[in-house]
Amino acid sequence: MKETLRYLAGIAGPSGFGSKSTAEQVTQISSNSMVQLTAIITGATSGIGAETARVLAKRGVRVVIPARDLKKAVELKERILKESPNAKIILSEIDLSSLASVKRFCTEFLALGLPLNILINNAGIFSQKLEFSEDKIEMTFATNYLGHYLLTEMLLEKMIETAEQTGIQGRIINLSSVIHSWVKRDSFCFSQMLNPNNYNGTRAYAQSKLANILHAKEIARQLKAKNAKVTINAVHPGIVKTGIIRAHKGFITDSLFFIASKLLKSTSQGASTSCYVALSQKTEGISGKYFADCNESNCSALANDESQAQRLWRHTRALIHRRLQVCNIKHQL
Ligand SMILES: NC(=O)c1ccc[n+]([C@@H]2O[C@H](COP(=O)([O-])OP(=O)(O)OC[C@H]3O[C@@H](n4cnc5c(N)ncnc54)[C@H](OP(=O)(O)O)[C@@H]3O)[C@@H](O)[C@H]2O)c1
């Protein structure tokens, strides 16, 4: 109850920000003192990712946008440059549902020889229909989780190296959702997520968002063990009427959104938590945590389960090795 009132009133938490804070507001202090940082933001062609890219570029961050629709990416780049003519934006192609495409993007990015300070694993889908990726994996799990797992794995050394060379902490942010807490322990089964017998779009989405948090927890643990100067956290952006929700047109969805319109965030409010965790000095050194409304928050008991996080990481790593070998793609993790 207290939490709901805090949310509705937009009362600031310990960070000094709350549910109504915008991405511009939470990054205001970061703007002057910033050396050139480089960020990769997935899913930046619309919604929360597009606003995150706009605001980071405005704050002087070089933004790399891997996109499956390059036309949309070019349009976004033009919009950003209109507002921030000195912005540095690099566009590249990726289909996060395809392991081969993620690998290709990483190889191309690494060949540019750029540093990498920030990785925002933001892209996401919500599909009511059961579909499979080219790797024959359920599409939501493949896009929201597996693609980002491989992306992170292939870019991690570059981030560690950049942090060592510059002394600036690297930061990885996984976009999750409060919906992760709907997942029951007995339904969180790896083989079923790859190829479900009984598909339910909401459950598949919630499972992928739980996997995003468990991934952040396990990588945070591994980075700490290595003493690496890179953090990884998960965020819930809030409920924002972006493409992911607009895809579910219909009287019931529209009516629910009309009724719940007071609970919805604007896109800029939705991008604020990612931007806060990516740039604020207050989040320096914080790793393996879950943020909502620009403050540390509680995730479900299952999302906090260390053994579950390790198991998921091991299964995923084995699967990716197998699949990339099958495709005859030499892969070094
Ligand atoms: N909106 C909400 O209320 C809400 C709530 C909780 C969490 N989230 C999370 O926030 C993140 C951003 O969502 P959003 O609301 O901004 O959704 P959105 O407007 O639908 O944007 C999704 C982005 O992901 C990209 N994408 C989808 N599949 C891809 C693929 N296979 N390869 C590369 N890019 C792909 C889309 O590219 P295209 O432009 O090519 O489609 C788009 O840029 C997601 O992870 C979502 O789960 C959103």
Automatic annotation (TrEMBL):
<keyword id="KW-0560">Oxidoreductase</keyword>
<dbReference type="Pfam" id="PF00106">
    <property type="entry name" value="adh_short"/>
</dbReference>
<dbReference type="InterPro" id="IPR036291">
    <property type="entry name" value="NAD(P)-bd_dom_sf"/>
</dbReference>
<dbReference type="InterPro" id="IPR002347">
    <property type="entry name" value="SDR_fam"/>
</dbReference>
<protein>
    <submittedName>
        <fullName>Short-chain dehydrogenase/reductase SDR</fullName>
    </submittedName>
</protein>
<dbReference type="GO" id="GO:0016491">
    <property type="term" value="F:oxidoreductase activity"/>
</dbReference>
<comment type="similarity">
    <text>Belongs to the short-chain dehydrogenases/reductases (SDR) family.</text>
</comment>
